[in-house]
Amino acid sequence: MKTALITGATSGIGKATAQLLGRQGYRLIICGRRIDVLEELQAGLSPHTEVFSLTFDQRYYAEVEKAITSLPENWREIDILINNAGNAHGLDSLIEGNVEDWDAMMDGNVKGLLYVSKMILPGMKSRNSGHVINISSVAARQTYANGVVYCASKRAVDVISEGMRLELTEFGIKVTNIQPGAVETDFSKVRFKGDETRADTVYQGYEALKAEDIADAISYCINAPKHVTVSDMTIYPSAQSEPRTIHRK
Questions:
Q1: How many CA atoms lie within 13 A of 70 on its CB side?
Q2: How high is the pLDDT of residue 199?
Q3: Total-model pTM
Q4: What PANTHER family does this protein map onto (predicted)?
Q5: List 60, 61, 115, 150, catalytic entry
Q6: What is the pLDDT of residues 58-113, one digit of tens each?
Q7: Which of 69, 169, 67, 153 is nearest to 113 (CA)?
Q8: At what angle do helices 148-168 and 112-127 cross, to 10 degrees?
């Protein structure tokens, strides 16, 4: 039975992925910043799913290191790492941007992914086996005005994924970079700092992707035959033609 560690497991894509992989028989290490939400997620998973929860904020390496080194011996062989945790804050020009928002995005989307990977990859390398899924964004493909820092953080995820593949393929480790388009989760609510009215307009007039759609894609990638690696996957809702263009009714 394989073990998958999922960051940002408490909502959106991470939660949907935990639910799907739990039904498929994976052992799960679910990670998030709030123990109460992790406990709620765990309670809602299949009763047959083996689950271990880790609470940490991946923006801080000391927290990541402490949490992952605290894993019991029988949970330390991690076969699949799903680097899902990330965030978007604000939709402002560089001139008007909030430095705290920039730090949150770069620390969470880039440094956090690196911190978690640094802790997990040595074990995979020593076993000559493993699979890393990095959740990027179509924002990495085309920079848009007022989202420069977010786009830069996701472009960094693409570059890190490519670098991982170059360094790890010879050790039997697969690396998959997934770029979702518009997915209806709490993403926009976080970006607009809780303004639900503004967040809702992002998904009006068309059918956005659902978190479950991305979970299905992740499942496909990790369940592919051993000789198959999906290196990059871009997923749009059918109404979206490129990162900046959505055709609304």
A1: 13
A2: 77
A3: 0.95
A4: ALCOHOL DEHYDROGENASE
A5: 150
A6: 999 999 999 999 999 999 999 999 999 999 998 999 999 999 999 999 999 999 99
A7: 153
A8: 10
Instruction: Give the chain's radius of gyration (CA, Å).
Output: 17
The CATH number for 166's domain is 3.40.50.720
Domain, as residue range, for 47:
3-183+209-234
Q: Is 190 among the domain residues?
A: no
pLDDT at 47: 86
203 is catalytic: no
Structure tokens at 143: 């920079």
- Does residue 132 contact residue 174 with C-beta atoms inside 8 Å? yes
Q: Under the phi-then-psi rule, with left for phi > 0, alpha for psi from -120 to 50, and beta for the rest, what region is 87?
A: beta
Determine the residue type at 40. E
CA atoms within 13 A on the CB side of 240: 19
Element (H, E) at 23: helix 12-23
Q: Are 123 and 78 in contact (CB under 8 A)?
A: yes
Indicate if the alpha-carbon torsion angle 108, 18, 81, 142 is positive or negative.
negative
What does the pLDDT look like over 91-101, one tens digit per residue?
999 999 999 99
**Structure token pair of residue 185:** 């989760």
Domain count along the chain: 1
Please tell me the distance from the alpha carbon of residue 77 to that of residue 124, in angstroms, as a whole number: 8
**Does a structural domain hold residue 142?**
yes
Query: Tell me, what's the pLDDT at 224?
Result: 98
